[in-house]
Amino acid sequence: MVIKNKFVKKIKKTVVVVALGGSSRERQVSLSSGKACVKAIKNLGYRVKTFDPRNNFFNQINKSKVDIIFNALHGKDGEDGMAQSYFEHLKIPYTHSGVASSMKAMDKEISKKLFIFNKILTPNYFVLTKNQNQKKILLKFIKKRKIKFPIVVKPINEGSSIGVKICKNLNNLIKEKNFLFKTYTSLIFEKYIAGQEIQVAVLNNKGIGAIELKTMRKFYDYKAKYSKSANTSHILPPKIKKNKYKEVLRIAEKVHKVLNCRGVTRSDFKFYKNKFYLLEINTQPGMTDLSLVPEIAKYEGISFDKLVKKIILDAGINK
Q1: CA-based angle 282:28:41, to the nearest 5?
Q2: What is the pTM of this model?
Q3: Are residues 111 and 254 in the same domain?
Q4: Mind listing the pLDDT tens digit for each residue in 217-243?
Q5: Is 319 among the domain residues?
Q6: Calpha distance 106→78 (Å, rounded)
């Protein structure tokens, strides 16, 4: 009882700053994630403050008044290693993955290379930069990589399916490519994989569960992820055989460890012809009402507050 009381007193004195919002295209999702986490952290008994890097830059965080940073940022600057580098510089323990892990996961080309090197199946792909934006170069790579239509094209460093386009023919691909190159300097082109959409949550190196998604839309895009009107079906557990369920959890655990991730991650797969294809790993998965990691955790008996507590207890530096 004495030990428990000391722990409760320590929690009440601990100041947790929730970093949320930011200036990426995922700002609104981050604000929703942050709001939900603030509520949970208060429920846990911690003292809570918020910090929005769109209003004040990271180096303005007063480290003498902060014990832990809970990173609820999404997208550019929040999950690509930039925010994490400031947290390390300030020497404030923070949640989720570190600088290098975040950067590798966010950069789809680097992460793809790591998947392949570690014998993790992923769709065939190639990358083009803006100065390679020529039809003959595109055709050369399609032929070289033996990729047939449909082809997926997307920015190399966005999340939440922002900028993802599925192209059924060359004319469509050229049109979408040219449109995306107006905003982005590098694009990744990959073979479209049909089949079931399976996503796996990993917490502190252990796969806690998986979910299957069925959308009425063309694919599991931004609207399907964050809009209730999209009527995306969430199937728990996924409609796959038990041995395959265990297999996809093992793969997700492996990629989490390969990238040296910390805290919570979500790995996105396609299950086609009895094989799992890893699309990407997300080091800052959403924590909104519609987010998948909290939904998976709840199904496995882990409440939202308990999930947040586990993430906080893993906070650290020198990751």
Answers
A1: 75
A2: 0.91
A3: yes
A4: 555 544 444 555 557 899 999 999 999
A5: no
A6: 10
